[in-house]
Amino acid sequence: VSGDTAFVASNRPGGMGGFDIYAAIRKAPPPPEEPSPVTELKLSVLNKFTRAPVVSTLIMYDENDTRTEAQTNGNGVHVRQVRNGASYRVTALAPGFNSRKLEIFIPADTSGVLQREILLTPVREKERVIYQFFVEFDFDRFRIRPEEQQHLDSVVQLLMKYPNSSVIVAGHTDSVGSVGYNLTLSYNRAKHVSDYVKEFLEDRGIRLENPLEVRAYGESQPIAPNSTEEGRQKNRRVEILIVRNE
Length: 246
What we know:
This protein is of the alpha+beta class. It is 18% helix and 34% strand.
């Protein structure tokens, strides 16, 4: 043996005669490959309107259409290693939200953590509410109290800011009286508030993209016990919801 060369004497058939000297040369090992940069993709799934985290399922396809599935954590976040120079297709799924697809390209020179947000649009109306207002009423009345008009004035100011939103005016009552009577009373309350708001806007030349929606719930949705006067007063109300649209 000499360095990377080994010599062997052999009289095997096919040689030159007698003992022949054979040399075996060891090839040098290839140089070690430089490690590829490691990139982590951090996906944050959020409510489009409130930017609250959304716990969701993520379905990802790479360039070879290999499918993987993962769950975000309680903060709506999922982190995974990805390949530089590759493209991925991600679909986020969550109950109560429309699904969202996103294509993500990982640049070749990326390293460290690459952050991307996936914004989901809620399907449920309550999760699209921007503002909610309450207007209380006297017992068995649907006329607006003078002290409650400031709430309505605040609503109008916001509608001037969000003219393309949907506005829901929902009337409610306490449990005193029959179900049918309270249903009518709650409608009259909601209609009176709706007319007040529309007149206020028209006087200022403001036109909403969507008509105000009037709803009547009667005594079916109390927010306080009807066993006390204080609770019944809270239930004699109109709720005004400003709901954001796409």
